[in-house]
Design goal:
Elements: H1 6-22, H2 25-34, H3 42-50, H4 69-81, H5 88-102, H6 105-116, E1 122-125, E2 140-142, E3 145-154, E4 161-168, E5 171-178, E6 184-188, E7 197-206, E8 208-209, H7 213-249, E9 251-252, E10 255-256, H8 261-290, H9 295-321, H10 332-344, H11 349-359
Parallel strand pairs: 1-4
Antiparallel strand pairs: 2-3, 3-7, 4-5, 5-8, 6-7, 9-10
Helix pairs in contact: 1-4, 4-7, 5-6, 5-7, 7-8, 7-9, 7-10, 8-9, 9-10, 9-11
């Protein structure tokens, strides 16, 4: 397990206290039932930004705190516990990473301070089909504009800045596109997990290139994948703890169901998988912070393992709660739906197992 610094421990404790007080699962349910088009509570997001969470990985010279990816992962883990929906992953992690790694001085000074204070929401627009295939890009960049379509863009309805992958004269790269450009057309999507997402069409939208080519695309995606895995870790951990509490209190046939050995074995399986998953996720985030040469394989390992674990735990949560777990009145369904959406985000288990094998030379 990662050894946290004093600052990281304080950050984790602050995040835990805030989500329990200000953003429990009941707040997510209220947001979903309200039908808010953004897919998150704007007031809650403003509070997160005021606490500096949107600038955790951003250098101090651009208004951030430069605490690193493991620190941001700790926050995402706590948000995942209560299924808190926010643009933190898309804007404060993925888009911010793209600008930090590939932006010019002017691009960084223009956008990073606004991302750090939450006044601008940015996001990645990479995939063009139902599955994650960042190397398969039909969108084109020519003469300063982008033409093409992107699918399932996280936080697409709220985004004011898109970081778009497109084919230019030097191959696939990333480009900045303002959402208010006349050539940008959004179509809001209704996803199972009730988060904000959109299909976006770029009809000759003005774009600025970032430097780094396809290598930049993969570096940015790896940071986004590690962030998703951290959020999944929090959600899976909370789903397990909620289920464990139920096993200790639910009585059937005159006995607490947690006394049944078959259920004990299933609970033990979830516990061990969660411990392994935590090690994998924290190793991936630490590798990013250290710019380790094995970052890509550690990230794919973490995303694949966390996908399997969250899939299992969310299924078991529903099954072990029995009939009530099948109803919308219980929170179990929220965790199962979030598991399925998070599994698909930036590559599912099959994608990352294949990628891990290819990196290993198989």
């Amino acid at each position: 397990m990662a050894v946290l610094t004093e600052e990281q421990s304080m950050l984790k404790d602050a995040a835990k206290s805030w989500v329990q007080e200000k953003s429990p699962v009941s707040a997510f349910r209220k947001m979903r039932d309200s039908g808010v088009e953004l897919g998150y509570d704007a007031a809650a997001w403003n509070e997160m930004a005021e606490m500096g969470w949107a600038g955790v990985i951003i250098p101090e010279e651009y208004g951030g705190s430069n605490f690193g990816y493991l620190s941001l992962g700790l926050i995402l883990e706590e948000l995942g516990r209560t299924l808190t929906a926010s643009p933190l992953l898309a804007s404060g992690l993925a888009a911010a990473s793209a600008l930090m790694l590939g932006g010019s001085d002017d691009q960084k000074s223009t956008w990073l301070p606004k991302i750090a204070d939450g006044s601008v929401i940015a996001t990645l627009a990479v995939d063009e089909g139902p599955h994650h295939r960042p190397d398969k890009v039909e969108a084109t960049f020519k003469d300063g504009v982008i033409t093409g379509k992107k699918s399932f863009v996280l936080e697409g309805p709220a985004a004011q800045l898109f970081v778009v992958s497109a084919k230019g004269s030097d191959g696939i790269g990333l480009y900045l596109v303002k959402a208010d450009d006349v050539g940008v057309v959004k179509q809001r999507l209704q996803l199972a997990d009730s988060r904000g997402a959109a299909n976006v069409e770029f009809q000759g939208a003005a774009a600025e290139p970032l430097s780094g080519g396809y290598a930049l695309v993969e570096k940015v995606l790896d940071r986004a994948r590690a962030g998703v895995a951290a959020e999944m870790l929090g959600a899976a951990t909370q789903a397990f703890e909620t289920t464990l509490d139920y096993l200790k209190t639910r009585v059937q046939f005159g006995q607490v169901i947690g006394s049944f050995q078959a259920l004990q074995h299933r609970a033990a399986k979830m516990f061990t998988d969660l411990e392994l998953s935590r090690s994998a996720v924290e190793a991936a985030l630490t590798a990013i912070d250290n710019d380790s040469p094995d970052t890509a394989e550690l990230v794919s390992l973490a995303k694949a393992k966390m996908g399997d674990t969250f899939h299992l735990v969310s299924n078991e949560m529903v099954q072990m709660h029995g009939g009530i777990g099948m109803t919308d009145a219980h929170d179990a369904g929220f965790y199962l739906k979030r598991a399925r959406a998070a599994e698909a985000a930036f590559g599912n288990q099959a994608y990352h197992r294949d990628r891990y094998a290819r990196i290993q030379g198989y």
